[in-house]
Structures are given as C-alpha cells and as structure tokens.
Inverse folding.
C-alpha cells in the first residue's frame, strides 16, 4: 500500500493567526464531530460522505487542539532524556523521537505516539492547532471505535481517496517513528483539492 504524503502548506487565511488560539469564526464543525479550519471542513465532510458511501464510517479521535491541550498532550507523551538515552559519546541514541521545547530536547516516552512540541509564540506547533489535522478511527460493525490502521479496507480507501479531498499522511514511510496511520492533514494550502465540491 502506498501512503500518500504531501508537504503541508498553511493557508494564507491563517497568516497572522496563533496556532492553538484560532478565532472561533475560523473554525467549523465537521461530520465526525469536532472542529477544523472552515476552509477545509467542507472538503473533510465530502470525504466523510464518500467514505460512508463506501461502507466506512470515520470517527474523530482528535480534532482542533488548543495550545493548552497541546501542552497537556506534550507533557503526557514526552520526558527529558535519561542517562540510558545517551550513547558512549554523550549523544542521544539513534531512533529516539525527540522534540525541542522550552529550549530543551525532550524524548518520546515508550508506547506513546509522537506529537508536535507546543510553540508559545503560535508561529509553529501542531497541525491540529491550525485546524488542519484530524485523527481518525473507524466504526466497526458493532458501532465500536476501531483502529484505522488496523482496518485494511478503510486504510486502503483513505490512501486511495483522501488526497482527492486534500488530505494526506504526514509521511509516506510506514516504518518511520513519525508515521501515524490515524493522522490525516489538509495539505493544499490555498489550492483547491482535485475534488472541490463543484
């Protein structure tokens, strides 16, 4: 399976805005529940409807994320390095997922999924803080939430169809520690996706 990736471009409509502190007027509700930037919400809803027509019900497990939510998540997922994290030369061991926050290097805790480091200036930060990302699961036949990455049909459908609506994974390398099968982000910037709802 090919994982679709496209470098995310923040739309010009968000220029001057603060990541994690978007005005309510810039956000819209989407059909999975939750909020996204209103410029991509209609494309997300069109993708949701197409997935549903294909027998796949997408579920929100992470939408727009405020700055405070980003800080809470970061503190849950990352820690400062321990002596065991360094090699004999004093360098952090290869393969560790790291982030820089408050001028220090932090290490991803074992068993946790990566997340962006919060940015108090609001110029960077999580793509969730721009309202451009949605973490997705699927609804199984019993109506329970199931892993998107664990559902071959749903994952194949997303990989083939999500780019039509402007949504991509954050890496095409399924072996990367940064790979998250559930994290889909609107990467079109000011361009219209192939399916623009017309």
């Amino acid at each position: 399976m090919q994982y679709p990736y496209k470098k995310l471009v923040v739309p010009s409509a968000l220029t001057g805005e603060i990541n994690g502190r978007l005005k309510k007027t810039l956000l819209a509700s989407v059909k999975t529940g939750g909020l996204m930037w209103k410029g991509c919400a209609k494309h997300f809803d069109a993708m949701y409807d197409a997935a549903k027509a294909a027998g796949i019900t997408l579920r929100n497990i992470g939408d727009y994320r405020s700055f405070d939510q980003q800080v809470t998540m970061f503190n849950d997922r990352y820690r400062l390095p321990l002596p065991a994290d360094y090699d004999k030369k004093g360098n952090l061991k290869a393969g560790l997922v790291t982030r820089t926050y408050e001028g220090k290097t932090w290490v991803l805790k074992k068993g946790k999924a990566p997340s962006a480091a919060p940015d108090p200036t609001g110029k960077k930060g999580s793509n969730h803080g721009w309202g451009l990302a949605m973490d997705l699961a699927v609804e199984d036949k019993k109506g329970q939430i199931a892993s998107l990455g664990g559902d071959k049909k749903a994952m194949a459908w997303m990989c083939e169809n999500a780019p039509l609506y402007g949504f991509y994974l954050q890496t095409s390398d399924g072996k990367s520690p940064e790979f998250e099968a559930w994290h889909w982000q609107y990467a079109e910037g000011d361009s219209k996706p192939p399916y623009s709802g017309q």
